[in-house]
Design goal:
44% helix, 13 strands, Gyrase A, domain 2, Four Helix Bundle (Hemerythrin (Met), subunit A), 6-stranded mixed sheet, Rossmann fold
Length: 455
């Protein structure tokens, strides 16, 4: 990384302040060519992290802005390299002109996530902290912010490293006995190996089970709103969002496709999916919509089955309720409670919570929010930042868990310690992939694809 990079770090909309950042061996020298402090002392003579007021200009001296600049020298910077920042007025045109001025000084455009990639390669952060940066940028709930901030602070890395160090200690002891037979080192006993494997396995199991909650925080829980035509699904969808996202008419079959939006409800991030009414139809377009509705139901992790409370439930709705309940958490929503209710309302299947509301007036929406929060309670015993939040982390943890299980089974079968510890060594490889101790280019490339340019 001998080149110097630059990028706009504050997006493409007009804002009060816009930031251009640089990183690399010529970052400060390039800044000196386009920024002149009012006191006349060039930036390469200024102390680290001091905001300096001056004039931003082209290399030819044509003024662009009066703004602030700061420098941070290696290794005490975000990337571990010499870095610099310009804090300008936030005109997108101005920021682009500032970037072009830097390009004229030999700086190149940064790629997406390249600043953070350099920080990782310089050892400033491990992969879990790197992923936390992206999670924090994209956080859509308070819990997601707490999780990402904790992970950025090293909470998840600490959990993983505790398991890694415990298994490394076991391996080190075993190899010490083999490599130094004349030393007075107690050989490993099967009971000691079993105890260590059991402890590490239990910690890894607890970690693996955090993925469902972590993924829900970052990606949101897929929540399908299903029911027969005219049950009020789209009206409920709009009521939850707070604006008219889906078209609503008295005509049955208005919704022909799935419509998806993200929504924070009861502290839970939902990927809310409005669906076409489920019924038999000869209309080819409506048939396609119904099939997409069924697919949304199959992949949802929460289902809201909406029925019209002003008329009795029929056999199709009973079948739909049973199907939804077999897939996962389900709430039966009796809609249109502002109309006379059909009596009696039959009991829902076991484990299905019931909420009565009027999507038209909004009455009862708060009860639906409460029911959802009960289905996905927060685990107050977990420290913020200790959840697995993406498929890469979950896969590595699961593979390490499989290796430890094999090691325990091999030990119980009476195999020799060296055979048992082969699986332990493989588990260490997967744990190393989690934090970046073991670096794979395809993994890191996939991670940094989530980043915006300038981060």
């Amino acid at each position: 990384m001998n080149d110097t990079i630059a990028a706009i770090a504050t997006g493409h909309q007009a804002t009060a302040i816009g930031i251009v950042r640089l990183s690399g061996p010529q970052a400060i020298a390039a800044l000196d060519q386009v920024f002149t402090p009012v006191g006349g002392v060039p930036m390469h003579q200024q102390p680290n992290r001091l905001l300096v007021y001056g004039t931003l200009h082209t290399p030819e001296g044509l003024a662009l802005d009066h703004c602030l600049a700061t420098v941070s020298r290696a290794p005490h910077s975000y990337t571990g390299e010499d870095t610099a920042e310009l804090q300008c007025h936030g005109s997108p045109v101005l920021l682009s002109m500032a970037l072009e001025a830097l390009f004229a000084c030999g700086v190149r455009q940064a790629q997406a996530g390249e600043f953070t990639r350099r920080a990782f390669l310089a050892g400033k952060m491990d992969l879990t902290r790197t992923e936390a940066v992206a999670d924090l940028i994209h956080a859509e709930s308070q819990d997601a912010v707490y999780q990402a901030a904790g992970q950025l602070g090293g909470a998840l890395a600490q959990v993983i490293n505790d398991i890694y160090d415990q298994l490394t200690g076991l391996m080190a002891h075993f190899h010490a006995v083999l490599d130094y037979p004349d030393e007075d080192i107690d050989p490993l006993e099967a009971q000691e190996i079993a105890h260590t494997l059991a402890q590490a396995g239990a910690k890894l199991d607890r970690l693996a089970h955090t993925y469902r909650r972590g993924r829900a925080l970052v990606e949101g829980i897929p929540c399908a709103i299903v029911g027969k035509p005219n049950a009020g699904k789209s009206t409920l969808f709009n009521a939850l969002l707070g604006y008219d996202r889906a078209i609503v008419t008295p005509i049955a079959g208005t919704t022909r496709d799935t419509v998806e939006e993200r929504l924070n409800l009861g502290g839970i991030l939902l990927r809310l999916i409005d669906t076409a009414g489920l019924r038999d139809s000869t209309d080819q377009v409506e048939q396609m919509g119904v099939e997409r509705s069924r697919e949304a139901l199959r992949r949802s992790e929460l289902t809201l089955v909406v029925v019209d409370a002003s008329r009795p439930r029929d056999a199709e709705e009973e079948e739909l309720l049973a199907l939804a309940a077999s897939h996962g958490p389900t709430i039966l929503v009796y809609n249109k409670e502002d109309l006379p209710t059909a009596a009696p309302l039959p009991s829902p299947p076991a484990g299905v919570e019931t909420v009565a509301l009027s999507a038209l007036t909004g009455d009862g929406i708060d009860q639906l929010e409460l029911a959802i929060s009960h289905l996905f309670p927060q685990d107050t015993g977990l420290r913020p930042g200790t959840l697995l939040t993406n498929a890469r982390q979950a896969q590595s943890a699961a593979l390490a868990q499989t290796c430890l299980t094999r090691a325990q089974q091999a030990l119980q079968a009476g195999l020799s310690p060296d055979a048992v510890l082969t699986d332990v060594e493989e588990a260490l490889t997967y744990l190393g992939e989690l934090t970046g101790r073991v670096v794979r280019e395809d993994i890191t490339s996939q991670i940094f694809q989530r980043f915006c340019v300038g981060k």
